[in-house]
Amino acid sequence: MADYTGLTDLLVEQEGAILRVTLNREDARNAYSNEMIDSLMRVFDLAECDDSVRCLVLSGAGRAFSAGGDLKQMREHSGMFEGDAVRLRSQYLRGIHQVPRRLLRFDKPVIAALNGAAIGAGLDLACMCDVRVAVEGAKFGSTFVKLGLIPGDGGAYVLSRTVGFPRALEMILTGRLVDAQEALQMGLVHEVVPSDRLLERSMERAEQLCSLAPLALRLAKAACYQSWDLTAEQALTLAASYQGIAQNTADHDEGVDALLEKREANFQGR
């Protein structure tokens, strides 16, 4: 088991094969800080190499998932919002852009337990996760234009891949808020539950993923993300390569045996 101590603006707790990660800046509605970004990078790096972890559940402390950017720092032009255009460009590339780069190549499943509002970069962080479970009453918005900004953290990329280009464009251009039921209808979230069921339901989904063959699950996720921008021929070549790996694992043999013997499979990650 990896050592997840010493993190800033982030809480981490492991329950079996599930790593629960909580954005922990409740006083700022879990808006990003440079320290939070550093902590997230450390957790993703450790969790990817930690064989005891099969799935992550990401949530926020308090009543919001994440407000995205810190408005106080924006007003003061401090922290990650300090500097001229050249400096800000560099800070984005070296700072918050680490999050989409890392999550888009993180090959274990990530479930977003959306305990409240996910706004701006907070919405984009949710879209970087693989499965999204939201509480009733949650609000979502790509509200950058209302602040005279653009989706500068990768939102134009991940939102359109989550809800489709026309819906993403409309949300980005208007900056309007979407409630949980509309988010469910447009495919922005996969499920809406009462607030007292959020953690339980998110953990149920995580446990279901943890019961599957972990190597196959990681390869399947990688194949989906990597195939998005490939030609059909390139995607088929990638699938053949990954299938060649998966089909030579003990978990594949166990899955076939379990199905033929009409029992639950016991996958070991080998």
What does this structure look like?
This protein is an alpha/beta fold and 270 residues long. It is 46% helix and 16% strand. The strands form 2 sheets. A 6-stranded mixed beta sheet has the order 1-2-3-5-7-10, with helices on both faces. Strands 4-6-8-9 form a 4-stranded mixed beta sheet. Helix 6 packs across helix 7 (165-174). The longest helix has 16 residues, at 34-49.
CATH class assignment of the largest domain: Alpha Beta
Label the structural class: alpha/beta
Please mark out the parts with pLDDT under 50 across 5 or more consecutive residues, or reply none. Answer: none
Number of strands: 10
The whole-number mean of residue pLDDT values reads: 95
CATH-level-2 architecture of the largest domain: Alpha-Beta Complex
**CATH-assigned fold name of the largest domain:** 2-enoyl-CoA Hydratase, Chain A, domain 1
Q: Output the radius of gyration.
A: 19 Å
Principal-axes geometry comes out as globular
The level of helicity is 40-55%
β-strand percent reads 15-25%
With helices defined by DSSP (H or I, 4 residues minimum), what is the helix count?
12
Total individual domains: 2
Q: Provide the spatial order of strands within the biggest beta sheet.
A: 1-2-3-5-7-10
Distance between the termini: 18 Å
Largest sheet: 6 strands, mixed
CATH homologous superfamily assignment of the largest domain: 2-enoyl-CoA Hydratase, Chain A, domain 1
Order of helical and strand elements: EEHEEHHHEEHEEHHEHEHHHH
